[in-house]
């Protein structure tokens, strides 16, 4: 009887040892948490709302604010430097604004296009006139095929791409189509430069639809920054070294009709 009791006790002890070993092996020892020191940067020209800790800036395109980001800031400052008087050495951009904006503004308004798009032709045709090596022509630098698609006559006798009012109407229709496709004025501007097919492909491949966060070819990647720079130097000429102020009177033609 004693022998049987000892066997039973031995079995219980063995089972307890096995159970303890299994329990110990099932416990996962977590590594000590890694201490990460937060990295902060100060972006000049960005201001902090005094009521909150949210950083904001005063740059925007078509009421779409630029991200508060050091890389975005550097690109914008590079574009501003490129377009200041020291590099341009001419008031031609302000002279063109004086001539063109009174014609362009009411047409943009009639088609529901944000006013910031009036700076786009200064980027497109800028300091140069005529036809580009690729065949784009006029204020809005339409290619022949796109111009015809939006109602402009382009042939050996007539080239309505060089008609300010007609080409602006065509541009408005085109920009509205791009906005309908991308649901963003910034992306619409980028697509105006790069084409909707290429931009859509970039959005899908990068899983990113914020223009300022995307990796695009150099020309398109700088395009909206150039528009923003153009806006800055026209609105604040003396800040960027331009000595003269150009003023113009906004007007809305009484009988202007927007044709869809």
Automatic annotation (TrEMBL):
CDD domains: MltD-like
SUPFAM superfamilies in UniProt: Lysozyme-like
InterPro entries linked to this entry: Lysozyme-like_dom_sf (IPR023346), Transglycosylase_SLT_dom_1 (IPR008258)
Listed Pfam families: SLT
Domain Transglycosylase SLT: 114-209
Family: Belongs to the transglycosylase Slt family.
Name the record gives this protein: Lytic transglycosylase domain-containing protein
Species per Swiss-Prot/TrEMBL record: Mucilaginibacter calamicampi
